[in-house]
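Bit of a strange request maybe. I'm writing a small parser for structure token strings and I need a real example to test against, not something I typed by hand. Could someone generate the tokens for this chain?
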Amino acid sequence: MQKTRKLLLLGDSAFAEVAYEYFTRDSAYDVVGFAVERPYLKREELFGLPVIALDEAVARFPPAEHDVYVAMVYTQLNRLRTRLSAEAKSMGYALASFISPQASVWPNVALGEHCFVFENNVVQPFVKLGNNVVLWSGNHIGHHSVIRDNVFVSSHVVVSGFCEVGANSFLGVNATLGNNVTIGEDCWLGPGLVLTQDAPANSIFRTSAPSPAKVAARRFFRVDG
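Reply from user aminoacidic:
Good idea to test on real output. This should exercise your parser:
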């Protein structure tokens, strides 16, 4: 694929390595370097590209010529990726998105900025994805559903039709939401969970075979860092 834009990745851990592969193989972006916050600068290069402190980014990789993707997972219930995305924008960078050509995303899906949609996702008609959303591989997002900002959806999750997933939430592998289910912001849904009723904000749902999943905590510890 022809490269038409340069890309700086924020992060140098596993997700950054994965993002490098996807952007390099299946996008018009040419990844030219990695940046981390200075206290976490532990090496000088990755894949033969420079790893720099974030406070040097503007001088080394000017925003007029480079976009940024923040390759962080759901640390601090997505707060870290959210904070660094805002910081990159304040530095003048445009935020990149990646939509795998092996994903099925219906043409009328509304996509926010800074999204990463891996292969084998099925995103049906009239879905809305907010800003800073990650859909790892193999999920089904049903028609008319809404995924709010800063949500991380793990692999093989089923979100049925007319659902809403609140901001900053995390959905574990193989979790399932029935039709017309709404979960509030800052929720954590464990692997394999089946949820058929609405969930209040700040809830943790765990699985405990063979008993049905239960709300483990009504108040989720907020992390604003």
